[in-house]
Amino acid sequence: DVKVTQSSRYLVKRTGEKVFLECVQDMDHENMFWYRQDPGLGLRLIYFSYDVKMKEKGDIPEGYSVSREKKERFSLILESASTNQTSMYLCASSLFPSLSSGRAPSYYEQYFGPGTRLTVT
Amino acid sequence: KNQVEQSPQSLIILEGKNCTLQCNYTVSPFSNLRWYKQDTGRGPVSLTIMTFSENTKSNGRYTATLDADTKQSSLHITASQLSDSASYICVVFSGGSYIPTFGRGTSLIVHP
């Protein structure tokens, strides 16, 4: 059974703290993603990674960094947390299709973790 | 700019009734469209996927339709249950990319 886990369901941090959010998938997926979800705004992509040590900026990378040292683990780092980073953070993973599959990369489903609700005070 | 618009923003129905959620998109080139269900406090879970050549796809009481000409999709829920209360998110992928465009979701509440 497909599984994406996130290190915390709820987290409360103070302004200026360094925050680590961890995501682990057990499906041997190449692609991993970090999103934030805010009421009325939907999901917005922060960063994604298509391979170990590879990362690409999404739509809203400012104030965040990421680390992918192992294929199964993708970490989101808030270097100095601010109140406007209070949000629900969702991690997702997906396959990168082989050339022989004949399927477009986007065909493969993104599997989401349960989310981490972060509050910065 | 790729965009996905969903309507209505929220919907309240009685248990046992049917409902239809709408999704309009301006993603190009189009590859596929997914409907996700997100229960409160949980991550989204895929309900259906539709490619360019598919018009209708069902998953139990959920039926998705796609009109690629008008760039519209709908999600029809039959005989609603209390467990259908959730946010339903329309997600569209453009060709060759694994980065989707998300709609803002429709919040559905089913009352007994």
Give a description of the structure.
The complex is a heterodimer of chains A (121) and B (112). In chain A, strands 2, 4, 5, 6, 9, 10 and 11 form a 7-stranded mixed beta sheet that branches. Chain A has a 4-stranded antiparallel beta sheet with strand order 1-3-8-7, with no helix packed on it. Chain A is an all-beta fold. Chain A has no helices and 11 strands. With 112 residues, chain B is mostly beta strands. Chain B has strands at residues 4-7, 10-14, 19-25, 30-38, 45-51, 56-59, 62-67, 72-77, 86-94, 101-102, 106-111. In chain B, strands 2, 4, 5, 9, 10 and 11 form a 6-stranded mixed beta sheet that branches. The model of chain B has no long low-confidence stretch (mean pLDDT 93). Classes of the chains: A mainly beta (121), B mainly beta (112). At the A-B interface, strand 5 and strand 9 of A face strand 4, strand 5 and strand 9 of B.
Spell out the key features of this protein.
heterodimer, A: 121 residues, mainly beta, seven-stranded mixed β-sheet, 11 strands, B: 112 residues, six-stranded mixed β-sheet, five-stranded antiparallel β-sheet, globular
Oligomer: heterodimer
Low-confidence segments of chain A: none
| Separation, N- and C-terminal Cα atoms of chain A | 37 Å
In one word, what is the shape of chain A?
elongated
Number of discrete helical segments of chain A: 0
**Total beta strand runs of chain A:** 11
End-to-end separation of chain B in angstroms reads 41 Å
Sheet with the most strands, sense and barrel status of chain A = 7 strands, mixed
